[in-house]
Design a protein that fits this description.
This protein is of the alpha/beta class. The protein is 41% helix and 16% strand. Bound molecules: NADP nicotinamide-adenine-dinucleotide phosphate.
């Protein structure tokens, strides 16, 4: 079911590339959606339960001259991925008369801050399902819909390079995503598909209860450890995701690109 279905594109119009962004309704995903739209991409974006936020993101893309469809997706439920792929197929056909995506951006995610000693099995399982199992099996399901020469972007974290107490489980999953990036780059390379990771530093969003944004003491401590002297903003990340999908990045394959303002150098 689509939250908003635009009228089909006129048959004569040159088609803009279509990118699927998970969790594109808010935070870094929403920011990437807007930068992509500005740079000439159309969007299939997902939201988990807030259809209103999905509609707002679609409206933002339209205001920037693009086309977008919002679809519900809970990435923690891999059993729903086959149905989701069907919804994507229908959306491509309905809104663009297309049968292929040009790129996938695996952005949806949660933060759980818990000391290693007290992290529960349920917390680890949830982080695994959302951050590692979902990119793995969602890409597997969507692979027939991704065009040859397309692109996949994973979202990792600066926390795989440096450490902060309380992020053992989260960062371990993001580390897995970085390894997955290199394996997919190798296995999908023969189809011309590029697979890369963007690793943000601490960014002020709702993430992890909004700690980086709302805890002034934490924000100041992180800023002091950042070469550029502040914590990140969503506008520091969306453009990096969008840049990776540009043709000029066509020789960048299997890489982790950190956008952290130089945290803990
Ligand atoms: P955010 O503001 O909390 O937004 C998270 C997004 O992911 C929302 O769109 C949310 O959808 C979606 N999402 C969460 N769980 C989901 C699920 N089970 N199924 C589908 N969608 C789900 O966080 P953010 O800062 O934008 O983070 C985006 C990505 O960047 C994550 O992968 C995160 O690990 C990574 N990252 C963030 C930071 C940071 O400091 N912010 C740093 C490094 C990496 P709903 O709105 O429906 O909940």
């Amino acid at each position: 079911m689509t939250a908003s279905t635009p009228a089909p594109a006129p048959a004569s119009a040159a088609r803009r590339p279509i990118v699927l962004v998970t969790g594109g309704s808010r935070g870094l995903g929403r920011n990437a959606v807007e930068h992509l739209a500005r740079q000439g991409f159309d969007l299939v974006l997902t939201y988990r339960s807030r259809a209103d936020e999905g509609r707002a993101a679609v409206g933002a893309v339209q205001a920037l001259g693009g086309r977008a469809v919002a679809l519900p997706l809970d990435v923690a439920r891999s059993t729903g991925f086959a149905d989701f792929a069907d919804s994507v197929r229908q959306a491509l056909d309905g809104a663009w008369q297309a049968d292929r995506l040009d790129a996938l951006v695996h952005n949806a995610g949660i933060g759980i801050h818990a000391p290693f000693a007290t992290t529960t099995e349920a917390q680890l399982d949830e982080l695994f399902a959302i951050h590692l199992k979902a990119p793995f099996f969602l890409t597997q399901q969507l692979l027939p819909l991704l065009r040859d020469g397309g692109s996949i972007v994973h979202l990792s974290s600066g926390l795989t390079r440096f450490t902060q107490p309380g992020y053992a489980a989260y960062a371990a999953m993001k580390g897995g995503v970085e390894v997955l990036t290199r394996y997919l780059a190798r296995e999908l390379g023969p189809r011309g598909i590029r697979v890369n990771t963007v690793a943000p530093g601490a960014i002020a969003t709702d993430f992890g209860g909004g700690r980086v944004r709302d805890d002034a003491q934490l924000g100041a401590a992180l800023a002091a450890q950042t070469a550029l002297g502040r914590v990140g903003r969503p506008d520091d990340i969306g453009p990096v995701v969008a840049a990776l999908l540009q043709p000029g990045m066509g020789w960048v394959q299997g890489q982790r690109i950190e956008a952290s303002g130089g945290m803990f150098l």
